[in-house]
Amino acid sequence: MESEQLFHRGYYRNSYNSITSASSDEELLDGAGVIMDFQTSEDDNLLDGDTVVGTHYTMTNGGSINSSTHLLDLLDEPIPGVGTYDDFHTIDWVREKCKDRERHRRINSKKKESAWEMTKSLYDAWSGWLVVTLTGLASGALAGLIDIAADWMTDLKEGICFNALWYNHEQCCWGSSETTFEERDKCPQWKTWAELIIGQAEGPGSYIMNYIMYIFWALSFAFLAVSLVKVFAPYACGSGIPEIKTILSGFIIRGYLGKWTLMIKTITLVLAVASGLSLGKEGPLVHVACCCGNIFSYLFPKYSTNEAKKREVLSAASAAGVSVAFGAPIGGVLFSLEEVSYYFPLKTLWRSFFAALVAAFVLRSINPFGNSRLVLFYVEYHTPWYLFELFPFILLGVFGGLWGAFFIRANIAWCRRRKSTKFGKYPVLEVIIVAAITAVIAFPNPYTRLNTSELIRELFTDCGPLESSSLCDYRNDMNASKIVDDIPDRPAGVGVYSAIWQLCLALIFKIIMTVFTFGIKVPSGLFIPSMAIGAIAGRIVGIAVEQLAYYHHDWFIFKEWCEVGADCITPGLYAMVGAAACLGGVTRMTVSLVVIVFELTGGLEYIVPLMAAVMTSKWVGDAFGREGIYEAHIRLNGYPFLDAKEEFTHTTLAADVMRPRRNDPPLAVLTQDNMTVDDIENMINETSYNGFPVIMSKESQRLVGFALRRDLTIAIESARKKQEGIVGSSRVCFAQHTPSLPAESPRPLKLRSILDMSPFTVTDHTPMEIVVDIFRKLGLRQCLVTHNGRLLGIITKKDILRHMAQTANQDPASVMFN
Questions:
Q1: Paired residues of 795 in beta bridges
Q2: Cα angle for residues 690, 695, 701 (degrees, 5° grid)
Q3: What is this structure's pTM?
């Protein structure tokens, strides 16, 4: 009878073999209702000696409350607060799944009772679609607002529109009838700062004044951004993707997805992009979208009271974030699946797709760039690619992999140095220094002075008859015998060679500054700087191949497909492939990245070059280290994240990793019916462990269950307030039947309702390879180790991470949450 009750409560566990043979993560979570407790603290310290701030509880005797409520009447009532989580803890995935199934059964059983209950049932069924719709609407609207504001503030560094201050440079000159084709960006309505301050449009004085104003605005924007982050929302800095990956794996960081973080991140993202720092807004847009998803989930009880369900909304929100960042709804869904999500059931895939669709639709309606596209650098190519070109495409992939490996090592080394030196104590000064160096070096070079998105657009764009860029300054060959295409391959002019030198300097500048910029205390994405570096390298390679084909069209590699007068090579395509390769080298994304870039260009024809370059960059990068930049930052910050990409190949056993070790103090345990309230309170106050195994007796060591520190604390405090006769000497009973007590003894406190009666256990001879796989698949927080049913020790998530660090010859102390 008891086992049947436990099964209905979700506490029944099938055999170990049935769990490990399940075919998917969802089956592993759903199948057989496996229950184990894996609520992780910030340092996973079930057995760590480190005290977590905010988790050291002091017990106080409750006042004598007159109550005639009998103890047994309270057993079926849920104790308020039990089953919730503290900051920097990991959620219990299976308990949350069981809660959701129980809620669903309760709603279904009542829906035929009345029209109101049927309405509540329909509302509950549709709440998932409503919350992702609201998330998509908010993400699209905020992305449009950020795009428009960032464009306007970027142009503010160079001048203002005298007639309408809210217009950026391009909008200011749209209605002007006094612009020329060659100087289409110059019009009387647009005034540079030199014209306004000293009344000169040309000359050395004008250049110096514009230079000074450019630096002034860049420093002002950067200072304002870092000040707002430091004062109002420290969590608004950085990309946000490493933390979102950790949160989606079940970790709780209170306030990271809150309304203050959303508001400050939106404002400071505009300021950081406008300051000209070597960063992008695409990564932070994922954080912004996840903030929207988290805030809207509190409007629906289905999600506000269940942390596992809330993470399904966050997965959909991250898809919406990438959708508006790149105008790539399908790429956004694949990004969420491949890169950030830990648990991704099929219904989350549909809702992610819908959220990405809604967000892209809203952004398209806003039309922030005035080109009817979702991104500034949308391009279309019409020239086919040829088999020989795979060789330079693969070379760009090699460059992307080398750049990714270099960037990850250099950036992590700099961030580690920032943490370990006094320099990290002055984040405002660091941002000001980086912004000043960036502005001083960027202004003289037209390609670094440009907004990074505009630079990528210029590098992606193919040279047509309407292009006036110096990258398109080709000499027209009047002696060509026949013209096959409208714009055939032509010899490069002075402007092209000048542009190549400037691009080489821009490449070096971007590589160095991006290393020092990513990780400073302002919102900073990595997608756009990486794409810019790849696009610069790709454009240079593209021009080189184009000139090689023009001057040596009789070589056997060109003879078959590139005749004189034909448009054989598209340098812009090389820029696009280089951008994808460099982004792949840094993030180690593959499928989602190819789809994102394919959606950017709108051409299926170039999928093979993109796939070749991205896979090459991943292989080359993996040769130097398998983790991408986000995994590297997760490890740097010590977040409790078990990466599924890492392989565990060592032959250790559970007994080698479990604690207590040989010289450690014995395991802190509770007995099922011979400890008092004072005994448990003393154990809670004297230790910093976040859970205690419950055994039958000290002599037998037979395992009964597992009780969480937080649940014990809340249950005892609640009993003192609500139950008459509970004192320090009251016997605490975890067994089903209260043992017989002397007549004069105080009323016992029965806490069986908070006990996890089927904690996940392994034997001491279980290979660690299997234990690590179980922790990954089920998202465990801890696992008890037994021998013939007797409790031997415990393995926590932190122990797993420490052991993996030791086997990789790394410092185990680096695993601590920072």
A1: 783
A2: 120
A3: 0.83
Residue 582 near residue 546 (C-beta atoms within 8 A):
no
Neighbours of 147 (CB within 10 A): 25
Reference 251, options 520, 406, 15, 38; nearest CA is 38
Cβ(326)–Cβ(600) below 8 Å: yes
Angle, to 10 degrees, between the axis of helix 591-601 and the axis of helix 307-326?
40
- State pLDDT tens for residues 555-596: 777 766 776 666 788 888 999 999 999 999 999 998 999 999
Domain 385-475+483-632, CATH number (from 1.10.645.10, 1.10.630.10, 1.10.486.10, 1.10.3080.10): 1.10.3080.10
714 with 81: CB under 8 angstroms?
Answer: yes
The more confidently predicted of residues 84 and 67 is 84
Helices (H) and strands (E) in the chain, counts: 32, 11
Across 94-112, b (16+ Cβ under 10 Å) vs e yields: bbbbbbbeebeeebeeebe
Q: Tell me: the pLDDT tens digits for 709-731?
A: 888 888 888 888 888 778 888 88
- Model confidence at 192, pLDDT cuts 50, 70, 90, reads confident
Q: Which of 89, 246, 249, 34 is nearest to 711 (CA)?
A: 89
* Per-residue pLDDT, 159: 87
Burial 622-643 (b: 16+ CB within 10 A, else e): beeeebbbbbbbbbbbbbbbbb
Residue 697 confidence (pLDDT):
84
Joined together, the tokens standing for residue 259 give 């309304």
Chosen CATH of 652-806 out of 3.30.2350.10, 3.10.580.20, 3.30.1360.20, 3.10.450.50 = 3.10.580.20
Rounded to whole angstroms, what are the CA distances from 58 to 39, 83, 474, 542, 713? 21, 20, 78, 68, 9
Q: How far is CA 337 from the centre of its chain?
A: 12
Q: Taking CA 346 as the corner, what is the angle to CA 293 and CA 89, rounded to the nearest 5 degrees?
A: 50
Per domain, the residue ranges of the chain are 131-170+183-364, 385-475+483-632, 652-806
157 close to 213: Cβ distance less than 8 angstroms: yes
Nearest to 521 by CA among 240, 729, 761, 220: 240
Q: Measure the CA dihedral 202/204/209/213, to 10°.
A: 90
Give the integer Cα–Cα distance in Å for 157 and 148.
Answer: 15
Phi first, then psi: give them for residue 207, nearest 5 degrees: -60, -45
Which range of 211-215, 557-561, 567-571, 699-703 scores highest in mean pLDDT? It is 211-215
Q: Could you read off the pLDDT of 602-643 as tens digits, one per residue?
A: 767 888 899 999 999 999 999 998 889 999 999 888 888 887
What's residue 779's pLDDT?
Answer: 80
Fold of 131-170+183-364: Clc chloride channel (1.10.3080)
Same topology for domains 131-170+183-364 and 652-806, yes or no? no
pLDDT attached to residue 15: 35
Nearest to 461 by CA among 594, 581, 544, 573: 573
Higher pLDDT, residue 363 or 420:
363
